Amino acid sequence: MNALRHGLAAVLINTTTTGTGDDNATVDDSGVDAMYHRLRQIEVERLKVFNDVYALSRSEDLDTLHKAVGRLAALERYAQRSHSKLKKHIL
To answer: Kindly report the CA angle at 12 between 87 and 71, in degrees rounded to 5?
Structure first.
């Protein structure tokens, strides 16, 4: 639900296995890869919003600046939650 709010709804990732007898490792590895790519996507979006905040900080439009700062804060919280999920999955 948070991803939808932040415009970062993920595409379902196909986690097929190779059938080599180590199937669980393949599924777990793809889950970690998916989480890592998710964090990268969030970081890219945060950088875009940060650049917007920087540009808006020099303008007179305080309402738009306030919205952009709010979005930046929301993305920060979302990134922290995603990072925590990744750490729990790895450990």
So the answer is: 65
Length of the chain: 91
Q: What pTM value is reported for the model?
A: 0.62
Specify the pLDDT at position 13: 38
Measured in Å, how far apart are the chain's first and last C-alpha atoms?
Answer: 25
Rounded CA-CA distance 18/16 in Å is 7
Domains held by the chain: number: 1
Of 45, 40, 41, 71, give the one whose Cα is nearest residue 56. 71
User: Distance of alpha carbon 26 from its chain centroid, rounded?
Assistant: 22
Q: Which range marks the domain in which residue 17 is found? A: 2-90
